[in-house]
Amino acid sequence: MIIILASCSDVEDISDADFVSDVSVAIPLINTQLTLDSVSERLNGLTSIVIAPNGQVTIKYRSEVIRQDADDIFPVFPVIIDVPIVGPNSIWSLESLASLTDAFADNEIRKAIFQDNNVFFKLQHASDDDVIFTITIPEFTLGGEPFTRTYAVPPRLDETDVYNTVSVSLDDYLFLPVDNALSFIYTAVDSEGNTIDMTATAMKLDFLNFEYVEGYFGERIFDIQGDIIEVGLFDKWISGGLEFEDPKVSVRVENSFGFPVKTEFQKLQFKTINGTIYDIESGLIEEGVAFDYPGLDEVGEVKETSFDFNKSNSNIQQIFIDKVASVNYDIDALANPDADPTISGFLNKESYFRIDVSVDLPLNGIVNELVISDTLDFDLNEVEDVNSAEFKFVVRNDFPSTVNVQAVILNAQNNPIDVIFEGDGIILDAAMLGADGRTVNGETTIEYVNLPKDRINTIKEGKRIVLVAYIDSKNVSDDYLWFYSDYEIDFKLGAILNLEN
Amino acid sequence: MYRVISTIVVIVLVRFSAIGQDISIHMMDSVYARTDVNPAFRFSNNLVFDLPGISAGAFTNGVAIGDLLIENGGLNELKLKEGMEDVNDINYVTGNMAVNIIGVGLNVGKWQLSTGYNWHYQGSINYTKDIFLLAANGNAPYIGETLDVGPELLLQSYHEVYIGASYQMSNITLGARIKLLSGINDISTDNASIKLTTEEEIYQLRVESDYVLNTTGILDYNGIKDVDIDADKLLDELFSNFLGDNIGLAFDFGLDWKVNDKFNISASILDLGKISWNKEVINYKSKGDNTFEGVDILDYIDDDQEVVLEDSLYNLLDFEESNEGYSTSVGARIHLSTRYQMSPKLTLGTNYYSASNTINSRYLLSVNCQYKTLPWLSIGTGYGISSNSPILIPLNTMFHIGFVDFYMSTENILSGFSITTSNVSSVKLGLQLGF
Fold it and tell me: Fewer beta carbons under 10 A from the terminal one: N or C of chain A?
């Protein structure tokens, strides 16, 4: 019994005891092989990285793509006027449509196919009997047969009584105007076959809407609007230079309208990180660039036109030395710039302009003591039980630029309370160039950062961390250097955490 | 993982302390319980009722949990580093308990018949030195090394209904017993290899695993950081699942040779059998190589998701679940003993005993003496050595009052006052009525 009681006492001691541990845990934290290729696979949005077949890298900053469809340029509109039919044989000029919308000003429709249109006629006569009214519009044909309809018009009740016929669909009717005009031929007879004079006759179209239109659409400007392209490259810039050998603003146009169009740049401005605004100087601005367009035998095809503002046709390289933050552009499209009415163009419901403007920065440049910085929120208060720590950095740099990285911890008052790395920070030596102009593998740098308990307690007071990077390529070459997609920064970080609880 | 292991250790050592109470039972002449270690042993009464009793023991060949206990400012603390010097390459902690619910024995001429019902619990954990060092020190001191960190586990409880018979042929008695087993719950490992390597470069972690953990619903695994063992089910379901699922059979065989009027040699082999587990079975299997080399920050470019290092670490050990039935052996025991009647009051003896379960085994050797000090009192002691202890001093006491026999014994009286600091702790209590 004594044994049992003594044993129970022992067990209680164990059950009541606190488990105390004092261990050192070694764990990998970060293991990243950073290449421009790998970054490009993960980018989305308006910034992308384009890699040429030879591995040379271009950063591309885009704005939203601008697209204008046929309905934007030639909108469907209701025909609010009656087309007068004056006598059994009458002609109505389509120029009258210009009074309805600017879209038809200076237009000459030579061929069209109706879509989703309906037509009816307003008829009036003075007879007390029914009148048989037959009308033909030779310019409207379906399967080669002209549009013809016959209506029985009841006796007029009074002078204000107008008979409206039922609506007839014009879908798929081919419209072939002669001399930009429309003709009407009608007969009106009573039950005995006597010709009756119509006191009022008119045609009413609900909408003017074509599946396909061919003709001359006049010299006109389509306001395509513009956008602002944000160039984030210098967002973190502090000092130093980054010079590109051949920066570009590229314009790529897709056009399936079948008539000549030329660019008219209303604006192409560059705003630097200091707020200075530069207008680009280029012959392309004054002269414009003609879009390629499909011919009458290429209906449905999309023609592509690409051009760019570069160092050979503009002052863009000098502008970029001043560190561009954004590009503001506004492009119009000038249709039929030669104002030649003999040119016959077309458009259909699928016709569109698509304009894609981008800032292209081929990474062929000189990095001259560039210092960039970023500030991030920082909170280590949730890190508990860490008595001390040792971080191990293993870094290799294949880029032809030396990179120094330092990290500074700021407290709530933005005062620095700790500098993570000793001296100038962790130094990633530049990789040297091989004979082919590419770098050979860089040297691996190993750096340890020890954080004893008092330093951890200090860092826990931090609210922000400022990362500062110094980058320079001059110690490799004074010439422009290409960055290739397979250049790699191999960044590895492990930690030994001494835990107590 | 270490929380789970420590939980199991506490379950094994604290909830149930003991096995190995068989060091001197062969010396206790009239006790029905002697048939537990050899079905050929005879009891002296014609009719015996073995009333509820208990035998329990706990053993370790490594660090006793009490050795980890230190007092700090009046508070008890468990500190693994305190056991660094005692840890072996392979360590086991074993505990078992048998509750003898009822037993009935009958002597009919040369035949002796017995039947009864018992309940058994056994728990074991095998842990490597690497597991202990990892838990005590962390992995940082072992950078560049591979640690073997796969623990072997066994937690098991079952019902046992037996029928036994022995027959005396001149100077040799043969005995046998058949046991119908009904499993209650089980956790047991099959393969148990988990190797953890910490690389030198930035401490990349690699886990090679070939690990199978079978359970009958008392272990709930929801990832390595969320493992719950419902140990209460081992006890709480004492009266459940009786002769339902998880059926098994086991056999005992024994011989007792009366060389002459004073000298006996006996031998037995016990618990040859197994239990087939098929109720609420879940198999957790992990096989393959997993490496965590650190977070690739490129995966978080332009992404608001939080970097969670912890999840990557826990995924190093990935288990697949299945529901395949399995079987476990009960754990065979061998018992060899001699007895020499020096005088009417004094008996001397020797004993060899080995016990094993599915994951570890243990043996002991002892010399014993039993002395009838009074007609109603008998005391026994001796000296023993076991695979996990160089010295054992057993002690037993039997009271015989009328038709009532009460007995208690321990395998090692030296450690009896502190089961948590001893490598061997056991106690056996029993009561029987003999007519």
Answer: N
Among B317, B8, B40, CA closest to B153: B8
Give domain limits for chain B. Answer: 2-434
Helix ranges, A27-84 (H): 36-42, 70-73
The architecture CATH gives domain B2-434: Beta Barrel (2.40)
Closest approach of A103 to chain B, Cα-based (Å): 45
Chain B residue numbers with beta carbons less than 8 Å from the beta carbon of A492 are 201-202, 294
A5 contact residues in B (CB cutoff 8 A): none
CA distance B140 to chain A (A): 5
Task: Judge if A58-68+222-362 and A77-208 fold alike in CATH terms.
Answer: yes
Complex ipTM > 0.85: no
Q: Which residue has the tokens 């699928």?
A: A350
CB contact under 8 A, B6 and A19: yes
Is B427 in the A-facing interface, judged by CB distances under 8 Å? yes
Closest among A262, A204, A243 to A82, alpha carbons compared:
A204
Q: What is the pLDDT along chain B (435 residues), one digit of tens a residue?
A: 444 444 444 444 433 333 345 678 888 887 898 899 999 999 888 999 999 888 888 788 877 777 777 777 778 888 888 888 888 898 888 888 888 899 999 999 999 999 999 988 888 899 999 999 999 999 999 999 999 999 999 988 899 999 999 999 989 999 999 999 999 889 999 889 999 999 999 999 999 999 999 998 788 887 777 778 776 766 666 666 677 789 999 999 999 999 999 999 999 999 999 999 998 899 999 999 999 999 887 777 665 666 667 777 778 888 899 999 999 998 889 999 999 999 999 999 999 999 888 788 888 999 999 999 998 999 999 999 988 788 889 999 999 998 999 988 888 887 655 556 566 667 788 899 988
Contacts of B416 in chain A (CB under 8 A): 3, 6-7
Non-local CB neighbours of A181 within 8 Å, separated by 6+ positions = A91, A92, A93, A94
The top-level CATH class assigned to A17-45+367-500 is: mainly beta
Write the CA distances from A357 to A130, A287, A360, B204, integer angstroms: 66, 18, 10, 46
A272 beta partners: A324
Which one of A1, A2, A3, A29 makes the best mutation probe of the B interface by having the most chain B beta carbons within 10 Å? Answer: A3
Q: Where are the domains of chain A?
A: 17-45+367-500, 58-68+222-362, 77-208
Tokens of B250: 């086991």
Q: Which one-letter DSSP state was computed for residue A373?
A: E
Measured between beta carbons, the chain A residues lying within 8 angstroms of B21 are: none
The answer to whether residue B138 neighbours chain A at the CB level (below 8 Å) is yes
Q: Hey, how many other C-beta atoms are within 10 angstroms of the C-beta on A152? A: 11
If you classify domain A77-208 with CATH, what class do you get? mainly beta
Q: Which residues of B touch A388 (CB under 8 A)?
A: none
Domain A58-68+222-362 sits in CATH at 2.60.120
Cβ pair B203:A394 closer than 8 A: no
